[in-house]
């Protein structure tokens, strides 16, 4: 999965092959969360970019990434290993290391959508939502620089969320359009990062700061959109840990990615 470097996301996830499955990457603070640590979706993008350069197949099918410690701004390395070359699905693992410390480990399945099967059953349509142009621009109420990653994306919702107006709703579910500020077309690499690019819906119960422990993304088709509609849900918060499920739908109402993560609320 090669990129043109035209867009900010591509420059931030650029991967330089060093040989033997090793890639040099540079972590930037521009994608930090409110914790002032690298966003998990951004780190996923760094790792997945390196894997797809090594992969024989053109498309990621899934990625499961576990975070050991926060990545810091600066140079790091991703080491990619092919675990299995399959007839339809191949498997790779990847380890992100910085300053001699293991940062994250991922297992990635790859395939080719042009050779995928034809059986389809989609009883659940995209949630009803006004077009991005008819929605409220959340960037007008999110102070610039408050959370660096929120400056990388444009967000649109049917109404301003309660937590942004100082009145959390108590409902840990939201619908929100998302695109990059520079309007980069969505591919699987960006869709994977976008799964972890929304403010945690735990903000609606008064807890905005959250750190991802494990994140799994399933890619459902090749995106062909600039905006994606995110349906974000947290079902359980128990002893400071919470789940977060995300569905990403394109502007044609097609499901392009699903994710689940386990995260810890920062205190």
From TrEMBL:
Which Gene3D superfamilies would you find in this protein's record? Acyl-CoA thioesterase, double hotdog domain
Q: Which InterPro entries match?
A: ACOT8-like_C, Acyl-CoA_hotdog, HotDog_dom_sf, Sec_Metab_Biosynth-Assoc, TesB_ACOT8-like_N
Superkingdom classification of source? Bacteria
Residue ranges of domain Acyl-CoA thioesterase-like N-terminal HotDog in the record: 29-110
User: Pfam families of this UniProt entry?
Assistant: 4HBT_3 (PF13622), 4HBT_3C (PF20789)
Residue ranges of domain Acyl-CoA thioesterase-like C-terminal in the record:
132-264
Protein name listed in UniProt? Thioesterase family protein
Which organism was this protein described from?
Nocardioides cavernaquae
